[in-house]
Design goal:
This protein is mainly α. The chain contains two helices and no strands. It has helices spanning 2-40, 43-58. It is flat and about 45 Å long. 14% of the residues are buried.
């Protein structure tokens, strides 16, 4: 059981560092808001987080083809 907890923690921290490296601080804040919204069962908080991450991924002009 502790090994599974350790592996999941390492995965989450690694994913968060990747998002911060790729999308900067706003991307990390968006992931944090998604996590807080899921933990608190708050769709508004999670929705704001998803919006922040989506704006970071797609930018203000959408996907360029």
């Amino acid at each position: 059981m502790p090994v599974l907890l350790l592996l999941s923690t390492l995965f989450v921290l690694g994913f968060e560092k990747f998002v911060e490296w790729r999308y900067g601080a706003p991307g990390a804040i968006g992931i944090l808001l998604i996590a807080i919204g899921a933990k608190a069962k708050s769709p508004a908080c999670a929705g704001v987080g998803v919006t922040v991450v989506a704006l970071q991924v797609f930018g203000p002009y959408g996907v360029r083809g």
